[in-house]
Specification:
Layout: H1 2-6, E1 10-15, E2 22-26, H2 31-39, H3 42-45
Antiparallel strand pairs: 1-2
Length: 65
């Protein structure tokens, strides 16, 4: 996960308060790229990361770099 962040694929991430869930803000071409990249990550292989939902998002205010 640190490598994905260092290369700019994962932009932001952190726990959602009061839940066991984590929100990841990812820069990708499409949903398939996200699924492919996360499926090969050690966190996924060790069952530390499970994709619950992928939702496209367009930034309308501000920027994420």
């Amino acid at each position: 996960m640190n490598a994905l962040h260092a290369e700019g694929f994962v932009l932001l991430g952190g726990p959602l308060e009061g839940t066991p869930d984590v929100l990841l803000i990812i820069r990708a071409k499409d949903v398939g790229e996200i699924q492919t990249r996360l499926s090969s990550d050690p966190w996924t292989r060790k069952d530390l990361l499970r994709i619950k939902q992928i939702v496209p998002w367009k930034v309308r205010l501000g920027s994420v770099g």
